[in-house]
Amino acid sequence: MIALRVIEGIAEGVSYPAATSFWGRWAPPNERASLAAFSFSGAQFGTVISMPISGIICQKYGWPTMFYIFGSISCTWVFIWFIVAESTAKEYKKMDERERTYILSQLPNSNNPETVKSLPWKNICCSIPFWALLITHFCANWTNYVILTW
């Protein structure tokens, strides 16, 4: 069980960085924060919805059914995502051309070396607001996962 939980954690651990990378390649800069917040809030929304539903499913149909239902929903979602999603707006063919033009015009040109900036790691690591957010985020996640697994 511990090994499976570690494997699950490793597999899930890439979801937030992948979503952040996805929005960085898809969303215009002035819309990224809203889109990322909306998509990341799905984890909390899913927990709020699935917890009471899980109790009802377990009571009526037995506890294994809950895993079959949520597992089937997840596998269906992943299957649809792999068919529909593309890495960039340029690759996505089912989009209106005006929308694609708008998105691509808003995104910085990553092929142009003048628009690519290096990250100021020293400034980030010495930033008190960064450490405050990091510690707060760690504590919130720790508490959330303790409650979820309790």
Molecular structure report:
- By secondary structure, the protein is mainly alpha-helical.
- The chain has two domains: about 1-105, no CATH class; about 120-150.
- It is built from seven helices and no strands.
- It has helices at about 1-15, 15-25, 30-60, 65-85, 95-105, 120-125, 130-150.
- α2 (about 15-25) crosses α3 and α3 runs antiparallel to α4.
- The longest helix is centred in the first third of the chain and has 30 residues, at about 30-60.
- The radius of gyration is 20 Å and the shape is globular.
- The mean pLDDT is about 90.
Query: How much is the average pLDDT?
Result: 88
Model regions low in confidence, pLDDT < 50 over at least 5 residues = none
Question: C-alpha Rg, in Å?
Answer: 20 Å
User: H/E series, N to C?
Assistant: HHHHHHH
Could you give a short account of the major beta sheet?
A: none
User: How many helical stretches?
Assistant: 7
Count up the domains. 2
Number of strands: 0
Question: What level of helicity do the residues show?
Answer: over 70%
What is the overall silhouette?
globular
Structural class: mainly alpha
**How far apart, in Å, are the first and last alpha carbons?**
16 Å
Note the beta-strand portion.
under 5%
What keywords describe this structure?
mainly alpha; 150 residues; 7 helices; single chain; 2 domains; 0% strand
Give a summary of the structure in a few sentences.
The chain has 150 residues and is mainly α.
